[in-house]
Write a structure and sequence with these properties.
Class_I_gatase-like, Rossmann fold, alpha/beta, 8 helices, single chain, GAL3A protein, 225 residues, seven-stranded mixed β-sheet
């Protein structure tokens, strides 16, 4: 029987929601791995809305669950309804919506707060010793909720201009966590905490390399499940 995996989204769109290519990659690799997937998102208002054509704020309001339903093709549930007993693992794709809607990292950095339902889900899976996967910016959730854990968001220096957000690694270290430098094609497994991370779009890389890197994260999550 395939593993049962929950996927938690943060909206739809790289600048104010879940990164679409990352969410799709996670779902494709889970499908290939034979997993049974259910998708969740918090039923909250987005922190902001971005016009992705212009890259500027849009004067409108959107709901995280409603926007995430676009990616889930309508088959989605309120994160408040997630029950850890029904799943073997959980995965959080990235996108700036993670740092805006699932927590306040975009505004407060390492002093951020985490959405109550996101925090509850993370704590429940961790307490049950079930694996949690993160990619792109979403490992900051692990760094905030699980002090002392090991994660990667790529490199801690902007090597060859490929890691423009390398300072995130320093903020993670300031939270008492260990940042592990990895390339885009790799993931890191914190075996003690059953946390698997990969940098995805935190690296400026061809899309197929990001897709393959996410595949290593999903594969490790399924191994641990």
């Amino acid at each position: 029987m395939g593993k049962r995996v929950a996927v938690v989204l943060a909206g739809c769109g790289v600048f104010d929601g879940s990164e679409i290519h990352e969410a799709s990659a996670v779902l494709v690799h889970l499908s290939r791995g034979g997993a049974e997937v259910k998708i969740f998102a918090p039923n909250i208002e987005q922190r902001d809305v971005v016009n992705h054509l212009k890259g500027s704020p849009a004067d409108e309001k959107r709901n995280v669950l409603v926007e995430s339903a676009r990616l889930a093709r309508g088959n989605i549930q309120d994160l408040a309804e997630l029950k850890v007993t029904e799943f073997d693992a959980v995965i959080f794709p990235g996108g700036f919506g993670v740092a805006k809607n699932l927590c306040s990292w975009a505004i407060d950095g390492k002093n951020c707060t985490v959405n109550e339902h996101v925090n509850s889900a993370l704590q429940a899976f961790h307490s049950a010793k079930k694996p949690i996967g993160f990619c792109c910016i979403s490992p900051v959730l692990a760094a905030k909720v699980f002090p002392g854990c090991e994660v990667t968001v790529g490199q801690d220096k902007n090597i060859d201009g490929r890691f423009p957000d390398a300072e995130t690694a320093s903020a993670i270290a300031e939270l008492g966590c260990k940042h592990i430098c990895k390339d885009v094609s790799e993931s890191h497994v914190d075996k003690g905490n059953k946390i698997v991370t990969t940098c995805a779009f935190m690296c400026k890389a061809p899309l197929h390399e990001i897709f393959d890197g996410i595949g290593t994260m999903v594969e490790e999550v399924l191994k641990l499940a």
